Amino acid sequence: MKHYDEHTWGLYINELLSPNEISEMEHHLYRCDECLDRFMICMEQMTMILPVLETDERTFADAVLTRTLGTKRSWYHSTILHYGIAAAATLILVATGFFHGLSQELGPRGALQPAPPPEMKIEQPISDQLLNKTLTWLDTLQNK
After folding, report:
1. pLDDT digits over 16-35, tens only?
2. In this structure, which of 16, 21, 52, 64 has its CB flanked by the most CB atoms within 10 Å?
3. 34 CB contacts (<8 Å, ≥6 apart)?
4. How far apart are CA 103 and CA 23, in angstroms?
């Protein structure tokens, strides 16, 4: 197995190699613990060479948060606006009688339910039968 030295790993980190060599070295890293150790040493040395942030992480994070929290959301992203539009639309539909007309078009509630097949006739309890007869009788009285 071919191993790479620290200089080659430095070139890899700085992306100074061809794409084929980079790909070959990446595959090698997955299989070779010795080269992985060399690569990690090179990475640690690179952190010493790279410039250090002027502020610590806490100050930087606080600055980012104050910038993002200080931004104002657009008025059209407001939840209250969306609820207001929905409520206004509902009031308009109720005032124009849309829902009443819709219920008249659909007919009675039982018309929407399919009838059971004749071979699967389910017997209703006596209390349901009596209730249905009473409601039918009341409906006829109300229509007169």
Report:
1. 999 999 999 999 998 999 99
2. 21
3. 3
4. 67
Residue 144 has what pLDDT?
A: 65
Helix (H, G, I), strand (E, B) or coil at 105: helix
Integer Cα distance of 10 and 46 in angstroms = 8
CA atoms within 13 A on the CB side of 115: 5
The reported pTM is 0.36
Q: Terminus-to-terminus CA distance in the chain, angstroms?
A: 100
Nearest to 128 by CA among 139, 118, 136, 117: 136
The answer to whether the beta carbons of residues 6 and 42 sit under 8 Å apart is: yes
Tokens of 72: 């104002």
